Amino acid sequence: MAGRDTAAADPMTPDVPRRAGSRYWLAGLNPAAKLLAALVLALGLVPAVDAVTGGTVLVGVLLLLPFSGIDRRTLLVLGGPFLLMGLSSGLVNHLYGEHGLEGAVGVAVRLLAIALPGAVAAVSSDPTETADGLVQRLKVPERPAMGVLAALRLVPMLADQWRTVTLARRARGLEAGRHPLRAVSLFFSRLFALLVRAVRTGTLMATAMDARGFGTGPRTHARHSRWRAADTLLVVGAVLLLAAAYTLSARLGTLVLLFG
Fold first, then answer.
1. Which of 14, 35, 68, 132 could form a disulfide with 26 if both were Cys (CB 3.0 to 4.6 A apart)?
2. Quick check: 168 and 65 in contact, CB under 8 A?
3. Which pTM was predicted?
4. Residue-by-residue DSSP string for 51-92
5. Is 48 helix (H, G, I), strand (E, B) or coil?
6. Same domain? 179 vs 239
7. Distant-in-sequence, close-in-space partners of 112: CB < 8 Å, separation ≥ 6
8. Based on the domain organization, do 52 and 91 belong to the same domain?
9. Are 258 and 48 in contact (CB under 8 A)?
10. Higher-confidence residue: 177 or 62?
11. In Å, how far are 31, 121, 225, 233 from 137, measured between CA atoms?
12. How many CA atoms lie within 13 A of 121 on its CB side?
């Protein structure tokens, strides 16, 4: 979009060594291609509820992580919530589901395989390039594309605000110590404070964007979003990975369809 700062000068750009060499080739691809590939995998995994299909896709995505340029710290922060989400979903399905442990593992793996590609695509892409790709390549209306750009720009700010809230409460003596229940209570209290700040920041940003006429008509772009052969290969690779996952599951006799 117009008025883009360089990634090196923007402190809110994700810490990804973009185009630092051929090793991190995934970071240099068009964000629209990465999001489209993630969408293909997510929609393709909806009918399959077995662990083999989702596990094959998940392994394929994990093999691409070293080429995404995402540092270890970001990877841990990114993977922690998804791992917790998968484990909790698997536990709930194991306790209350009808398919036992096998069904619980399938749900957990499938959830991770659906969520992780989109997260990797978002973190390994520059927010401005993502908005450009959405508008110019995927023909997304500019208003929601601007919303995506604003949301990606706000993620580092929310992380800083979380640290600020934590330090402020610690300075007031609000610490859990070794009491686990108090730790949970303080966590949700900080989460509510962060939610309030996020709503306020989002309201101010929406008002400022409306005042500048974002989304009211056609806009010019500071640069062209290029679609290369490698971007097409990534989308085709996602389709082939999905086909390989279904083929492997079918041959092993483990394929279970949601609507079967």
1. 68
2. no
3. 0.74
4. HHHHHHHHHHHHHHGGGTT--HHHHHHHHHHHHHHHHHHHHH
5. strand
6. no
7. 54, 58, 82, 83, 85, 86
8. yes
9. yes
10. 62
11. 10, 16, 7, 16
12. 27
